[in-house]
Amino acid sequence: MSRLNDNHKRRLLSAFQHMDKLLSQSLNVVASTPAGLCSRYIQDMSPSELRHVQSHIEKIREQILGLLKKFEIALPQPTTPSSWILKTSLTSLDIVFEDLYPEKMRGYGDMDQSTAKDLTSEIEKTRKHLSQLLAFLADAKS
Q1: What is the pTM of this model?
Q2: Does any domain span residue 77?
Q3: For residue 75, is it within any domain?
Q4: Does 97 lie in the same domain as 51?
């Protein structure tokens, strides 16, 4: 039987969840080639170093899981669908694109008509792909 009260358990769970998030973020940085256009990271670890890091992170997670079990702290069940996260992110992306139209950027200085037209065209092409992806997700979930 656990000697921790509910407040202790919530504090420990919160700390372990934060730790797991940091471990996941760290693994995402070192385990993959930069996928983003603006990645700040240079992959400087060899495959063997990466396997070593992954092994230790797995052991740390096993220890955390053992602590949770020992002190009878239940992990909450996942509640957020990944498709909702994706739709939310894509909708936010669409809002950012909306703010990049030339008429929305007047406060940043003058833009010649040709450049404004090109920018608008490129934004609309990209938003079309974004719209198609959002429609796909909506259809897939209905």
Answers
A1: 0.71
A2: no
A3: no
A4: no
Residue 31 one-letter amino acid: A
Cα separation, 91 vs 137, in Å, equals 12
Tens digit of each residue's pLDDT (9 = 90 or more) over 42-75: 888 888 999 999 999 999 999 999 999 999 999 9
Residue 12 near residue 71, CB atoms below 8 Å: yes
Give a yes or no: residue 24 inside a domain: yes
Q: Are residues 10 and 66 in the same domain?
A: yes
What are the counts of helices (DSSP H) followed by strands (DSSP E) for the chain? 4, 0
Q: What does the alpha-carbon distance between residue 53 and residue 58 come to, in Å, rounded to a whole number?
A: 9
43 and 17 housed in the same domain: yes
Q: Look up residue 37 and give its DSSP letter.
A: T
Divide the 142 residues of the chain into consecutive groups of 10 and give the mean pLDDT of each group: 88 96 89 70 86 94 96 94 94 96 96 97 97 93 74
Residue 62, in any domain of the structure: yes
Closest-CA residue to 44 (of 33, 58, 36, 55):
33
